[in-house]
Design brief:
The complex is a heterodimer of chains A (208) and B (230). Chain A is built from 9 helices and 5 strands, in the order H-H-H-E-H-E-H-H-E-H-E-H-E-H. Chain A is α/β, with parallel strands linked by helices and 208 residues long. Chain A has a single domain, classed as Glucose-6-phosphate isomerase like protein, domain 1 (Rossmann fold), CATH 3.40.50.10490. Chain B is globular and about 60 Å long. Chain B is built from 8 helices and 5 strands. Chain B has one domain: Rossmann fold, CATH 3.40.50. In chain B, strand 3, helix 7 and strand 4 form a beta-alpha-beta unit. Chain B has a 5-stranded parallel β-sheet with strand order 2-1-3-4-5, sandwiched between helices. The chains are: A alpha/beta (208), B alpha/beta (230). The interface between A and B is large, with 59 and 58 residues. Chain B: One of its GO terms (biological process) is carbohydrate derivative metabolic process. Chain B: This is SIS domain-containing protein. Chain B: It comes from Actinospica durhamensis.
Amino acid sequence: MTLDAETAPPAVSAIFEQRTAPLLALADQARDLAAAAHAVAARFRSGGKLIVFGNGGASTDAQHIAVEFVHPVIVGKRALPAVSLTSDIATVTGIAERHGLAEVFAHQLNLLADPGDIALGISPDGDCANVLRGLIHARGHGLLTLALLGGDGGAVAARGAAEHVLLARSSDPRVIKEVHVTAYHILWELVHLFLEHPGALNPGRVTR
Amino acid sequence: MTATDLVALYPFLYASDGELDVLLDAAVRSTVAKTAEITELRAELARRQGARLELCARQLAERFAAGGRLLVFGNGGSSTDAQELATLFLHPDGEHPALPAFALSNDIAVMTALSNDVGFDVAFSRQIAAFGRSADIAVGISTSGNSANLLLAFEEAARRGLMTVGIAGYDGGRMAQLAELEHLFVVPSASVHRVQEAQTTLYHALWELTVAAFAGRHPVPEPFDPRGSD
């Protein structure tokens, strides 16, 4: 067997090709992604901060998004305030032990969020109880709410818990994560695009 | 990204004073272009490195079967990839076997202690020295391939007989010059975002192929029962 072959083994091809259709489905949501980025940029411009949360693998996305905004990889882009709600493991385990895992994000949002902030919840099946609770709490307190979901969007989509929803159309949690990574990389880039054109963020400018 | 790049990406903005509709249209086109770009990059990666990925997965399965554990590390965004890969092995969904793995950036006390007392360059290599056994696997993830703490960690891992796997971007950077690395997967893109996206697919595929190879050799163990009698 040669390791320099120019064709992928069938098992590898099968895995990689599963990513193609869900990525195209993300492209179909390009308008929604742009509208979400515009709304996020307007909040940042008014002094809001981004608060991100998810469970398991999605908690690593929450941390990735936070570092993406706080410490941009592209030189010259401004640092923007963003935090993930799984970074403080003392608080997460403390809340989970006393009040249950469903409360870990809502409790932190209650104390750390301002009405002008942005809440971004990530749930690969849309059914994470704590992400749902967090988004409902955030929306009720005036935060801009976004959700990165997968599958059919689950309870988060069904209950309209977030104003902006992006859906990774796959049932494989790993494919869903990969679509989410591309989505939030583009979101980050578009937020900066809008921030660099403040005329587009003037009051009264709303995206359809 | 430079201003010149921005003009190239969004030429209409600079011609028409940034009207919102123009911006939104530019954003939509940019999103469509990026999804096409990552799809092409993944196909290229599968062609170029698919055979190595299969071989690496078989060797990982053999290591796990021999009692090895996976130690994974990276900086910044790559540290979140390290955590994702660790939790994927340790707590997979469905019927997949759970295998021992941990990320070396998890313990902030250890990270800050090593960085403050010795230096950030040894943040991972000192942990490899403390935890590493010869049956283990060391996986380092970097977009540039140049992170000093990864290079030192690979050297330490190789000295101790661990299997070494590098995941890098661009041209592989200094990781491509490292003789100690048994496997190096390079995502050939100049965009740090596309590199990370393709790397995510790469290590997801590595996990999927590894657990398949492992399950082929071993019956899937009984799921862990937290209410077990002992």
